[in-house]
């Protein structure tokens, strides 16, 4: 399985350090975590929603393609965690607690979670502390530039 992330060079390694600096829907601040998406296009949407405006999109982004080998068991978030409001902001305690527990237990390498942005697509949370993280490989990193029409003023 291939997964994708769009990030700055300093966060392109599979070390999960970005999770140390801020919380996310699936982790508490201070936990190593790697957020990825099943599709490069979803990774782009995920990046867009995490900036205050299109003008704040960094110009030095990379598209990172990661291979998760066949045979790696990917846990799926249980439906009972997706309670009413799981997809809201601020992040629901159920998702933050579940994801943090997933990371701390180190039982699985990957957790498949639904995307809030595109409900029929999924993100995959990778646990950099899991013993099998070393079998995941960065296949390539390429410069990623958002199409200028995204930030063009259409008014």
Overview of this structure, please?
By secondary structure, the protein is of the alpha+beta class. The chain has one domain (2-150): Diphtheria Toxin, domain 1. Helices cover 15% and strands 25% of the residues. The protein contains 2 helices and 7 strands. Helix 2 links the parallel strand 4 and strand 5. 26% of the residues are buried.
Give a quick rundown of the structure:
The chain has 155 residues and is an alpha+beta fold. The protein contains two helices and seven strands; from the N terminus they run ββαββαβββ.
Please specify the SSE layout and strand pairing:
Blueprint: E1 2-8, E2 34-37, H1 40-49, E3 61-67, E4 74-76, H2 93-105, E5 110-114, E6 122-126, E7 137-144
Parallel strand pairs: 4-5
Antiparallel strand pairs: 1-3, 2-6, 3-7, 5-6
Q: Could you say what the CATH architecture is?
A: Alpha-Beta Complex
- Low-confidence parts: none
Main sheet properties: 4 strands, mixed
Order of helices and strands: EEHEEHEEE
What's the CATH topology name? Diphtheria Toxin, domain 1
Mean pLDDT: 93
* Oligomeric assembly: single chain
Distance between the termini: 41 Å
* Topology, number of strands: 7
Task: For the structure shown, list the relevant keywords.
single chain; 155 residues; Diphtheria Toxin, domain 1; 4-stranded mixed β-sheet; alpha+beta; 3-stranded antiparallel β-sheet
């Amino acid at each position: 399985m291939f997964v994708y992330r769009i990030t700055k060079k300093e966060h392109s390694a599979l070390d999960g350090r970005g999770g140390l600096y801020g919380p996310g829907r699936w982790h508490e601040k201070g936990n190593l975590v790697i957020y990825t998406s099943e599709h490069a296009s979803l990774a782009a949407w995920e990046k867009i929603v995490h900036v205050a405006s299109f003008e704040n999109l960094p110009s030095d982004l990379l598209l990172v393609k990661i291979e998760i080998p066949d045979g790696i068991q990917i846990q799926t978030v249980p439906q009972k965690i997706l309670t009413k409001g799981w997809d809201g902001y601020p992040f629901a305690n159920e998702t933050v607690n579940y994801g943090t527990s997933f990371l701390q237990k180190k039982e699985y390498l990957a957790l498949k979670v639904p995307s809030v942005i595109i409900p029929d697509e999924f993100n995959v949370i990778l646990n950099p502390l899991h013993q099998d993280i070393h079998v995941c490989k960065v296949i390539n990193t390429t410069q990623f530039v958002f199409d200028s029409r995204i930030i063009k003023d259409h008014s």
